[in-house]
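Q: Convert this sequence to structure tokens.
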Amino acid sequence: MCVGVQTLVVSATMAFNFLHIVVAMILSLIINLSSFGLSQTEDLTKGASFIFGDSLVDAGNNNYLPTLSRANIAPNGIDFKASGGAPTGRYTNGRTIGDIVGEELGQQHYALPFLAPNTTGRAILHGVNYASGGGGIMNATGRIFVNRLSMDIQVDYFNITRRQIDKLLGASNAREYITKRSIFSITVGSNDFLNNYLLPVISMGARITQSPNGFVDDLIDHLRGQLTRLYNLDARKFVVGNVGPIGCIPYQKTINQLREGECVSLPNKLALQYNARLRDLMQELNENLKGATFVHADVYALVMELITNYDKYGFTSSSKACCGNGGQFAGIVPCGPTSSMCSDRNKHVFWDPYHPSEAANVIIAKQLVNGGEKYMTPINLRQLRDL
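A:
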């Protein structure tokens, strides 16, 4: 009887010790996973996208600003499946280039707008979007819209996110996550011409006192400082898009009363002038910022290819806005509830007077991710991710 009791006690003790070891192992595993920013319910191995720029990639930041530049009205977003077709603040009928790039790279979630109330906690580890409709490299750009986030402010906001990631992961793991697993995407510059230097009346004083060369010099100097600030906050993997053929957008073609195959020469000339200097800047930063990789995306050539050879890609128009009003190319009144809208949105290169359709964005984004040196130098985004 006593022997049986003793055996029972020993067995119970062994079972307790075994359970204790198992619990300790589980707790250790959880702690180890947590220390690398992982949990059993989230996968961060595909990294994060931190997106900066203007309305081409804005995912809704302007919804939270008192601004005249907004896209949170129907029918914008009509083809955005994640919202069930409700407008989100994206300036297109569906996904932006940034959204599609993230999907192509295997990221589980879209980068959330920095100003959105749900962009908190571990959600930021999947990436954050700082882009703002009307924003530009220069702080004065887009002032016609009253409010917008310039690149300087967007970098200031990333500084806040950077400190938050430190708190979530610890300083060492946070730095590893930012340097190794995060891509920093910059799509900016168009507004600096369209809504600053070329803007009638408002910019006339600046254009009298500053030559195109001087203005482009200022843009490059400011962008160099902004990219260097991101580098100093541990960003290492960059993709920077140049300015597209802004003289070919429906707005410019309409107000200048051009024919189908024509583009306005001055905006395109300025864009090409800036783009040549941007390419030089990318080479300079690759040489001077140790450990960083700056990928140059030739968006100008990509979009011009779609505009010139639109039928090759299944489009029926590369001049007329699918959603808009005014003039031959529906290029004067922005897309809104009273706008006319084309019947087949996948057949138009342009969604509205300024922005590509989702169908065009898909073609552009896939070239950014998988394209060769014709558009992406020195490597594409899939290769950048895997560095």
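The two ends are 68 Å apart (CA to CA).
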